[in-house]
């Protein structure tokens, strides 16, 4: 196993390893790299759904079937992220996966089945580095603050549909996932890093602030997270795999490929 760091803030490419045939030593080395680099990339990997799930279990217990994303019929814990002719991707937002549920995931593993020749990159951002960059006064204030996270961003998206009465099915499902209040600063349970735990897609507002103050604060912090020095960018190829620490990163899918066919499988590990 050979590990090549890709950017100063986060990200490494891992070569000379077959993710379908990992030894205990491989898993230990890969996990250390996962904590250090926060997102790992692999090329030319062939994984069946069962092997993909087995890889996920190297990182912990798997999340159950996603409540509304498309899934494989034979393996409902494998989410299908697909674009096809006439069905382009929807609007993309920076996000940390599933911060609208009580315990967000630990990590996710994305495996590219096929991708366009050009476009469709994904960017990841190190939110510990973002927090570390802030003035001490901001850090102290943010440590005392909380924010509301919710499912609102999916209503009306390509994952939504209307029932027979014209009501959003995601709005109905969201009743099982009411908005949740989270500290704006969390601490990584394994590395002890402090993390700015907000994201553009699911963070709705700052508790105790007026709408105007909340929006201004979130927009200022989101703008910092969009700075390139905190990011790594990955160009997908068929067979590529990305494994990221959802506790400390957020990511953004670049939707610059129109409706060119693109299909990836995702397995997610519980927090």
From TrEMBL:
<dbReference type="GO" id="GO:0000908">
    <property type="term" value="F:taurine dioxygenase activity"/>
</dbReference>
<dbReference type="GO" id="GO:0006790">
    <property type="term" value="P:sulfur compound metabolic process"/>
</dbReference>
<dbReference type="GO" id="GO:0005737">
    <property type="term" value="C:cytoplasm"/>
</dbReference>
<dbReference type="GO" id="GO:0046872">
    <property type="term" value="F:metal ion binding"/>
</dbReference>
<dbReference type="Pfam" id="PF02668">
    <property type="entry name" value="TauD"/>
</dbReference>
<keyword id="KW-0408">Iron</keyword>
<keyword id="KW-0223">Dioxygenase</keyword>
<feature type="domain" description="TauD/TfdA-like">
    <location>
        <begin position="4"/>
        <end position="268"/>
    </location>
</feature>
<keyword id="KW-0479">Metal-binding</keyword>
<dbReference type="InterPro" id="IPR003819">
    <property type="entry name" value="TauD/TfdA-like"/>
</dbReference>
<dbReference type="InterPro" id="IPR042098">
    <property type="entry name" value="TauD-like_sf"/>
</dbReference>
<dbReference type="InterPro" id="IPR051323">
    <property type="entry name" value="AtsK-like"/>
</dbReference>
<comment type="similarity">
    <text>Belongs to the TfdA dioxygenase family.</text>
</comment>
<protein>
    <submittedName>
        <fullName>Taurine catabolism dioxygenase</fullName>
    </submittedName>
</protein>
<keyword id="KW-0560">Oxidoreductase</keyword>
């Amino acid at each position: 196993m050979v590990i090549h760091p890709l950017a100063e803030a986060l990200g490494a490419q891992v070569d000379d390893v077959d993710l379908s045939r990992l030894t205990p030593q491989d898993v230990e080395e890969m996990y250390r790299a996962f904590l250090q680099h926060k997102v790992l990339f692999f090329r030319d990997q062939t994984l069946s759904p069962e092997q993909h799930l087995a890889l996920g279990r190297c990182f912990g217990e798997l999340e159950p079937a996603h409540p509304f994303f498309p899934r494989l019929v034979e393996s409902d814990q494998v989410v299908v992220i697909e674009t096809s002719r006439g069905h382009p991707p929807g609007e993309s937002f920076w996000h940390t996966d599933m911060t609208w549920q009580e315990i967000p995931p630990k990590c996710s593993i994305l495996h590219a089945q096929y991708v366009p020749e050009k476009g469709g990159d994904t960017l990841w951002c190190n939110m510990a580095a973002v927090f570390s960059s802030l003035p001490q006064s901001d850090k102290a204030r943010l440590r005392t603050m909380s924010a509301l996270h919710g499912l609102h961003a999916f209503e009306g998206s390509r994952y939504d549909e209307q029932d027979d009465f014209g009501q959003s099915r995601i709005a109905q499902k969201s009743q099982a996932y009411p908005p949740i209040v989270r500290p704006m600063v969390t601490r990584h349970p394994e590395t002890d890093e402090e993390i700015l735990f907000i994201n553009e897609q699911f963070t709705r507002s700052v508790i105790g602030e007026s709408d105007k103050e909340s929006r201004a604060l979130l927009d200022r912090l989101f703008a910092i997270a969009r700075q390139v020095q905190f990011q790594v960018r990955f160009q997908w190829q068929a067979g590529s795999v990305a494994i990221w620490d959802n506790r400390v990163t957020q990511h953004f899918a670049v939707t610059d490929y129109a409706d060119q066919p693109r299909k990836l499988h995702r397995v997610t590990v519980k927090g």
